[in-house]
Design goal:
With 202 residues, the protein is α/β, with parallel strands linked by helices. It has one domain: 3-Layer(aba) Sandwich (Glutaredoxin), CATH 3.40.30.10. Helix content is 22%, strand content 17%. The chain is built from 5 helices and 9 strands; from the N terminus they run βββααβαβαβββαβ. The strands form 3 sheets. A 5-stranded mixed beta sheet has the order 5-4-3-7-8, with helices on one face. It has a two-stranded antiparallel sheet with strand order 1-2. A two-stranded antiparallel ribbon has the order 6-9. Strand 4, helix 3 and strand 5 form a beta-alpha-beta unit.
Length: 202
Amino acid sequence: MLTTQIMITIAGMVAMGGSSTRGEDAPTRAKVGEPAPAFSLKDVNGKEHKLSDYAGKIVVLEWSNHQCPFCRRHAKLRTAEKVMARFEGKPVVWLGINSTKTCEENVAKIKKWMKKSKITYPMLLDASGIVGKLYGAKTTPHMFVIDAGGVLVYSGAMDDDPYGGGDHVENYVEKAVAALLEGKTVLKSTTKPYGCSVKYRS
């Protein structure tokens, strides 16, 4: 079983690599318009990923669950890969996070699903649920976009088409990233996330 290692931000800590204040302070919860909480998680292959590793880049976080039909639909449609293809060569990173309480026990199944679905971005494991709860992730998928300065600028749904089949789908994540790359403000910074509930440890 892989051991999940988590480093969370303490109140007053700068998201992209700062120093904490008093150790007894409560963790800073993620809030749009404020520095995104730092974290460190291992992916399904055991590689550690720190948010600070991506300082200076736009970071997209996607809460995921290989058993969720909403995540499976997006994987089948290759939503993430299509969005990232538009920004190829740009300083944009996409990270999946699985906060399901049994994710570490199902690494083999997650890897099999990723291979079958041709998922190219890292899938980080958060079995304790600390990072998921820190960000307030409610559903799979629940999307977050962090700008190059480490500020959380978007939280919500992937798009406005929860069940698929829409004629004119608005991808909120794609629009947020595009706005940042153009030096513009993300106009729609919050939307209601859809999908399956995150299966946290009680």
